[in-house]
Amino acid sequence: MRERSSSETGPLAGSLLLAHPSLQDENFRRSVILLSAHDANGAMGVVLNRPLGKRLGQLTTDFALGPLASVPLYKGGPVQPEQLLLCGWRPHDDGSGFQLMFGIDPVKAAELQAEKGVHLRGFLGYAGWTGGQLENELRQNTWIVAPIVAQMLEGEQDESLWKRMLGSISHEWKLLAEEPEDPSQN
Q1: What CA–CA distance (Å, rounded) separates 145 from 138?
Q2: Is the pLDDT of residue 167 over 80?
Q3: pTM (2 decimals)?
Q4: Which range, of 9-18, 72-81, 104-113, 154-163, averages the lowest pLDDT?
Q5: For residue 120, which of 46, 88, 96, 139 is within the disulfide window of CB 3.0 to 4.6 Å?
Q6: Residue 161: enclosing H or E segment and its boundaries?
Q7: What is the rounded CA–CA span in Å between residue 9 and residue 90?
Q8: d(Cα 186, Cα 11) in Å, to the nearest integer?
């Protein structure tokens, strides 16, 4: 996998943002963010690797007995943490990429769940940036931009995802990803 340079311009929607190993903000430390939107007005995405250990059926009685009860829930980000976003993705039939679906209504999500190869997730909250904010953070090397890869969608999407994704870029990034969180354990 090749990281995208912060000097490369253009929309990043459909890309991943991997938190730089030095990022200490508790909302984003060791996070993997899937960007759903990015333009001159700002950017939006969800944190993929913060599972809440709950299912949608445990969130409200509206979903308890329905077809979406087993959809896993994740902490999507610090913005509007009470808002539920239903998101999904599936690989294209020819293996050339993925179809990303954000903000799906529950009826459509139930239809998609019945389709083969669709991965559904519920996210509480999202990550958001105002116009120019993400570009500034990229210039400061806060994020590593990476493409979505099949093994990311198929593997576990927990705290280990950040290490796997960062480590797949290069040997140097793998070394940084494997550093212990507590430097005294190094």
Answers
A1: 8
A2: yes
A3: 0.86
A4: 154-163
A5: 88
A6: helix 160-167
A7: 26
A8: 38
